[in-house]
Structures are given as C-alpha cells and as structure tokens.
Write a structure and sequence with these properties.
Blueprint (H helix, E strand, L loop, with lengths): L1 E3 L4 H5 L6 H9 L1 H10 L8 H19 L11 H4 L7 E9 L5 E2 L8 E11 L2 E7 L10 H13 L5 E8 L4 E2 L3 E2 L3 H21 L1 E3 L23
Parallel strand pairs: 5-6
Antiparallel strand pairs: 1-9, 2-3, 2-4, 4-5, 6-7, 6-8
Helix pairs in contact: 2-3, 6-7
C-alpha cells in the first residue's frame, strides 16, 4: 500500500543525512521511515532492550577504550574485551562524508552521511571493525559493517583491507568475519538508497510494508499496526 503524503515545505528543504539506521528503516518500511526520520512525529521511547544495549556499549567503551573494569554484572563479557588489550584501539569513533565521499566532521554542515563505529583496530593498511550487538541475532547482515568500513576508508585513505564482525556478548557469540573492502560496491548501494529516498521526498509516496515488525512499530495509526504481539 502506498500513501501519498504532503511534505511540509520546511521539511522538504531540510537536508536528509543518511545513516545505517534510517536506510535500514527505509528497507523495512518506507512509511515508518518517513514518519520517524523525515516527518519526525514519532516520540523517542527507550525500551528496556535499548537501555540494556546502551549500557552495554558504554561498558565496552570504558573497558576497551580506557581499561575501566566492567561492573560485576558484566564480568562474563571480559573474554570479549581482553583481546583488545594489546592493541591501540579507537572506540565510538564518529565519522562523516560529504556527497562526494570525502571525509568531513560528523557535525559538518556539508555532511551527507554519518556513522559511529564501536571499535576499530588499525595496523598499517589493514583495519578490524567490531560492532557490539545486544539483541539475539535472527540473521546476520553485514550492511552496517560495510557502511562503517567505507567511512573509515574515507577518513584513512591508506587503508586497503577492512574486515569486521559482530560480537553478541549477551549470548557469548562472535559472528562471521566479513571482508568489507569492496568500497565501491558499498558506495553504489548507499547512493541507490539515498536516491530512492530523494525521489520519495519529491513524490510524497511512501509504501507501507506489512511484516512481523508491525506490532512493535511506533506508527500506531497505520492500518498494519498490530496491537496483539506473538
């Protein structure tokens, strides 16, 4: 189903800055993405799972980046932090690029796309990206890792090989190691999605996609929203 929506002029003029989160939201449901990230009429609500994830990220940032011990309730995660002790690491690095894929500050007025990377270890022309995940994985999609690698490459052009993996401390799992070095492919994919979003902003046509995510969606006035959840 497609809704044709009038975008207020002020919103239409406001630059759209891409992130993995809003691109993935667009893939999941165009209408929900529009409401959250363009119209912005959905209040931010931190769920218990989101709160736990934020606490976990903060704990690893302190432990890996500053050698601050994990609190007792997170002691079981130490095995995932210890391997970084022998390396120089960068935690929670904020990166941005402009429309030409040139590295700019995260908050620069020309920023076109931005990201934040949990952990980077770089040695000469190689880098490893680690992304902490605190939800149980249903499947593993390296799109977020590939985006992070592209912006890292823009910041550090000397990089030739970037690999990355997700780590799931809650279930004590280390995900598949992915080669993220096809930067052109990632750049093309980002551009395709950003172009589609630009077209939607002009047409005002945002498709509603019915899925198992509808019951958890904040856009409760959509006819696909399910009150009952399995």
């Amino acid at each position: 189903m497609t809704d044709v929506l009038d975008i207020p002029p002020a919103l239409d003029r406001r630059p759209f800055i891409g992130t993995y989160t809003n691109l993935q939201a667009y893939r999941n449901c165009e209408h929900a993405m529009y409401r959250r990230y363009i119209l912005r009429d959905q209040p931010y609500v931190e769920t218990a799972a989101m709160k736990f994830g934020n606490e976990g990220h903060a704990a690893f940032e302190a432990r890996v980046g500053k050698k601050i011990p994990l609190k007792p309730s997170f002691d079981q995660w130490e095995k995932h932090a210890t391997p970084f002790d022998e390396y120089e690491v960068t935690c929670e690095q904020k990166l941005g690029i402009d429309v030409g894929c040139r590295s700019v500050d995260f908050w620069d007025k020309t920023v076109w796309f931005r990201t934040k990377i949990d952990v980077v270890v770089a040695i000469n022309d190689k880098a490893l990206i680690t992304d902490w995940k605190f939800a149980n994985p249903q499947y593993e999609d390296p799109f977020e890792l590939r985006i992070n690698a592209l912006l890292l490459k823009a910041k550090y052009p000397e990089l030739r090989t970037v690999v990355g993996r997700y780590v799931y401390p809650k279930i004590d799992k280390v995900g598949t190691m992915h080669d993220l070095s096809n930067f052109k492919e990632t750049w093309d994919e980002i551009n395709d999605l950003m172009d589609l979003i630009a077209q939607k902003r002009k047409s005002g046509e945002w498709v509603k996609k019915k899925s198992g995510l509808c019951g958890w969606c904040s856009v409760a006035d959509c006819e696909n929203h399910f009150v009952a959840r399995p």
